[in-house]
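Hi! If you just cloned this repository, the fastest way to understand the data is to look at a raw example. We've pasted two of them here, unedited. The first protein comes first, obviously.
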Amino acid sequence: MVSGLIRHVKVIEDDGNIVEDKMWQVTPSHDKPHGYKYSLAYIVKNKRIIGYDNGESKGDHRHYKEHIEPYQFKDLKKLTEDFYNDIREYKEREL
């Protein structure tokens, strides 16, 4: 199996907020049965507001402000859609 970085996007918005997503293909394992490692984060004023990741032995999960909950990983496309939809919804609420 070929492993390695699939995607890395980092955008610094005009207001200084940061959107960053990183995805790797990895050998499937107990904590990454789908064969992907990922870290997606939306940083506002140097604080993670939204995040999706599957850090070592933590499984797929989502951060929203101070709350952490399990995330049902389907595929990278759905992961990306969910992340960017959360950012859009957060921005709409904050205006």
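Ok, and the second one:
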Amino acid sequence: MDWSRLNELALLSVSRACAFASLAIFCFMIGMAGYPLVALKSGAVLMMFSAAVLVIKAQRSPAKPYKRTELWVLLAPEERPSNRFAQQVIGTTLREMFIRFAGYFAFGAFCCFAGAMALQLINQLFGS
């Protein structure tokens, strides 16, 4: 079993799902472009929600049946770990990826909150 291949496929699986979530959040924010402060704040809340969902998924991943994961399906039959320790290997690998992307979403939420605070400050200093 090639550990780098397992990590690569776990990265593909989790990043694809997170990309779709990011696209939905981005489209929502673009839809509110007329109200940039609201768009930034709502984007930050949605990103924090996504990060929370990823943390919950990370906590549950070691117990999720490994044969029901996308990672198991992506692995070729000869690449799959033996059934003795597949649950631990796949659960741990997915857990690490979920935590990694939860951090990315949390950072994105922080950036949106900071942008909203800066925009609000600019509006108070120079707005009407």
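That's it. A detail worth noticing about the second one: The radius of gyration is 19 Å.
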